[in-house]
């Protein structure tokens, strides 16, 4: 909920879950220069190779992801945070049911119309 100072308090449990695919869903909170998303990936879900202007941090809260980032293969597990620099190609596959927080700066403009 926005406040007069421009600050806002958001409650994850009050944000609608957006179904991206049959295997991936998310909730988004966005400011003008930063964006955070709760992302839920079912085991076997794939995020295709892509890149974007945004610098990205991925914090795995539960589960595990097999990632390819800038030509390097790695596995990201619960409690680990991956930093993806701006413009670096990356992809991911959920090797377990996975719950992550993803932070972006600047915001992912192509996601903005999805934010209410």
Q: What labels describe this entry?
A:
116 residues, Jelly Rolls, four-stranded antiparallel β-sheet, six-stranded antiparallel β-sheet, mainly beta, 0% helix
Give a short overview.
With about 120 residues, the protein is an all-beta fold. The chain has strands spanning about 20, 25-30, 35-40, 45-50, 55-60, 65-70, 70-75, 80-85, 90-95, 100-105. The mean pLDDT is about 95.
Task: Explain what the structure shows.
- The chain is mainly beta.
- It has one domain (19-108): Jelly Rolls (Sandwich).
- 0% of the residues lie in helices and 50% in strands.
- It has strands at residues 18-19, 24-30, 35-41, 46-50, 55-62, 64-69, 72-77, 81-84, 90-94, 98-105.
- The strands form two sheets. It has a six-stranded antiparallel β-sheet with strand order 1-2-3-10-5-8, with no helix packed on it. Strands 4-9-6-7 form a four-stranded antiparallel β-sheet, with no helix packed on it.
- The chain is globular, with a radius of gyration of 14 Å.
- The model has no long low-confidence stretch (mean pLDDT 93).
């Amino acid at each position: 909920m926005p406040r007069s100072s421009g600050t806002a308090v958001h409650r994850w449990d009050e944000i609608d879950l957006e179904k991206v695919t049959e295997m991936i869903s998310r909730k988004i909170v966005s400011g003008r220069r930063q964006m955070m998303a709760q992302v839920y990936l079912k085991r076997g879900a794939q995020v295709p190779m892509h890149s974007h202007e945004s610098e990205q941090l991925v914090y795995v809260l539960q589960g595990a992801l097999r990632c390819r980032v800038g030509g390097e293969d790695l596995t990201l597990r619960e409690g680990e945070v991956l930093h993806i620099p701006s413009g670096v190609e990356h992809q991911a596959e959920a090797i377990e049911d996975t719950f992550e927080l993803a932070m972006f700066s600047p915001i992912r403009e192509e996601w903005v119309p999805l934010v209410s």
